[in-house]
Specification:
The model has no long low-confidence stretch (mean pLDDT 97). The N and C termini lie close together (12 Å). The chain has helices at residues 18-32, 45-50, 88-91, 109-124, 146-152, 203-210, 219-224, 235-240, 275-288, 311-323, 336-348, 361-370, 386-392, 403-408, 414-419, 432-446, 449-461, 467-481; strands at 2-6, 36-42, 51-61, 67-75, 80-86, 135-139, 161-166, 174-175, 196-197, 200-202, 213-216, 245-247, 298-305, 327-334, 353-357, 373-376, 396-400, 425-427. By secondary structure, the chain is of the alpha/beta class. It is built from 18 helices and 18 strands. A hairpin with a 2-residue loop joins strand 9 (196-197) and strand 10. The strands form three sheets. Strands 3-4-5-2-1-6-7-11-12 form a nine-stranded mixed β-sheet, with helices on both faces. A six-stranded parallel β-sheet has the order 15-14-13-16-17-18, sandwiched between helices. Helix 5 packs across helix 6 (203-210), helix 9 (275-288) packs across helix 12 and helix 10 runs parallel beside helix 11. It has two domains: 2-251 and 466-480, 3-Layer(aba) Sandwich (Rossmann fold); 275-460, Glycogen Phosphorylase B (Rossmann fold, 3-Layer(aba) Sandwich). Residues 17-19, 21, 302-304, 331-333, 359-361, 364, 383-386 line the site of adenosine-5'-diphosphate.
Length: 482
């Protein structure tokens, strides 16, 4: 089964969030099932720098007249065949893949990402005579136009299935309608049965509308996005597509996230030998100027600092956390107001709260390794990876019962403790009181070390690798190709 995976980011080369982790892990997991996966990526500097055995596959002209070189080679860091669009004017810029250094979206993001879908459709239509994809699998709004172009470009040599995965419905790729005529799509595509969304262009809607099948990254999120509360205005469309919509839970890339082999942490450990975890905790407390106290429950946050992540609830319970004898470490970057408030709170309680603003991959590993609890109080969460990293590293997740968090974490209620299914703490209502009660349960369990160890042991042994998700994607591809 030849699969072309299309995304804007890929770990370890370019990452702003969980999308990159998935884009880096899924191809290798699919290859292990017998698929032949190739990836298509924009030519951001770190991606081009990693591309070995590089040759030019084609020199094309984008629908708006810009020359486009499509290169082909192998990503050295992943040992994965890749197509990359080498268009320096579009992709070689300061800032994130999506925003400039002032955190403003690039004004030509429509072109920068329309091209991703357009080249995907050209590959589906036989651009590479040596390799024909049977499935084009595109991820999030950045790749959302792949299906639209596949529907309207000149006929394909073979029928190619088109799968679209929603990693976060809240980011939709909305653009002013004047951009439509640059895209080279027929006028009929700018309608309610197409890209049009309340008078604007929506790349996310295109992805949902034209896909043969839509997946989201957890079964619960697949249900939630069909409701007005979580559908971001697209729930009506998603309800009409309910028969072609399913949730496949992400996995953990164990080549990257495994405390037994992790080179970024102070001491390696596993479920059988946990001395290393205590050493990681002491090392982190020391490095951050926290009181070096083995028996202080250490809570961790590794997160984008955005409204979605519910961190204002953490701020609301922070004094209680400290007065109960807990500690908190935060690593994150995002909204200025959240950054400033967390930094101020750390100044007030330097022995109990440490905050680092920024993006730091090794430090994220150190936090999961050191902490006792991983906080993920998101308002909504399509899948969430950090609660799964917490499970693997013996840092019990404390989460809001929503999306993928609901699918991966079972509260330490008396009955779930007795039945051996509990692996963390879950709160039902998105408010500080509900979070505070879950935190109180975490403190109560921490005060019973034998039970805590039992729950942690179970959490660390849970199977979270990508093999299950990969077989579900494979089954989907096979069904669509018949
Ligand atoms: P989202 O994709 O919404 O940001 P996920 O939980 O799916 O949330 O994935 C977040 C990924 O980004 C995880 O791999 C997490 O460790 C990482 N991450 C988030 N913020 C930071 C940060 N400041 N430094 C390092 N890694 C981070």
């Amino acid at each position: 089964m030849n699969v072309l995976q299309v995304s804007a980011e890929i770990f370890p080369l370019l990452k702003t969030g969980g999308l990159a982790d998935v884009a880096g892990a899924l191809p290798l997991a699919l290859n292990a099932t017998g698929c032949q996966v190739r990836v298509l990526l924009p030519g951001f500097a770190p991606i081009l720098a990693d591309l070995t055995d590089r040759v030019t596959l084609a020199e094309l002209v984008a629908p708006w007249g810009e020359p486009v070189r499509v290169c082909q080679g192998r990503l050295a860091s992943l040992n994965l065949p890749a197509y990359v669009m080498d268009v320096p004017a579009l992709y070689q810029r300061a800032g994130t893949p999506y925003e400039d250094a002032q955190r403003q979206p690039f004004t030509d993001n429509d072109r920068r990402f329309a091209l991703l879908g357009w080249v995907a459709a050209r590959l589906a239509a036989g651009l590479d005579a040596q390799w024909q994809p049977q499935v084009v699998h595109s991820h999030d709004w950045h790749a959302g136009l792949a299906g639209a172009y596949m529907a309207y470009l000149p006929p394909q040599r073979a029928r190619v299935a088109n799968v679209f995965t929603v990693h976060n419905l809240a980011y939709q790729g909305l653009f002013a309608p004047r951009h439509f005529f640059e895209l080279g799509l027929p006028a009929s595509a700018f309608s309610v049965d197409g890209l049009e969304f309340h008078g604007q262009l929506s790349f996310m809607k295109a992805g949902l509308f034209y896909a043969d099948h839509i997946t989201t990254v957890s079964p619960t999120y697949a249900r939630e996005i069909q409701t007005p509360e979580q559908g971001c205005g697209l729930d009506g469309l998603l309800r009409t597509r309910a028969g072609d919509l399913s949730g496949i839970l992400n996995g953990v890339d164990e080549a990257v996230w495994d405390p037994a082999t992790d080179a970024a942490i102070a001491q390696r450990f596993d479920a059988r030998k946990l001395e290393g975890k205590a050493q990681c905790k002491a090392a982190l407390q020391q490095a951050l100027g926290l009181a070096v106290q083995a028996d202080a429950p250490l809570f961790g946050v590794v997160s984008r600092l955005t409204e979605q992540k519910g961190l204002h609830l953490v701020l609301a319970i922070l004094d209680e956390l400290v007065s109960r004898g807990g500690q908190l470490v935060v690593l994150g970057t995002g909204e200025a107001a959240l950054e400033t408030t967390f930094v101020q709170r750390a100044r007030t309680h330097p022995a109990s709260i440490a905050v680092r603003i920024g993006y730091d991959e090794p430090f994220a590993h150190q936090i999961f390794a050191a902490t006792d609890v991983t906080l993920v109080p998101s308002r909504f969460e399509p899948c969430g990876l950090t609660q799964m990293y917490g499970l693997k590293y013996g840092s019990l997740p404390l989460v809001h019962r929503v999306g993928g968090l609901a699918d991966t974490v079972v509260d330490c209620s008396l009955e779930d403790l007795a039945e051996g299914t509990a692996n963390g703490f879950v709160f039902n209502n998105f408010n500080a009181h509900s979070l505070s009660r879950a935190m109180a349960r975490a403190f109560a369990l921490y005060a019973q070390p034998a039970t805590w160890r039992k729950v942690r042991n179970r959490a660390m042994r849970q199977r979270l690798d990508w093999s299950q998700a990969a077989s579900q994607y494979l089954a989907l591809y096979q069904r669509l190709c018949h």
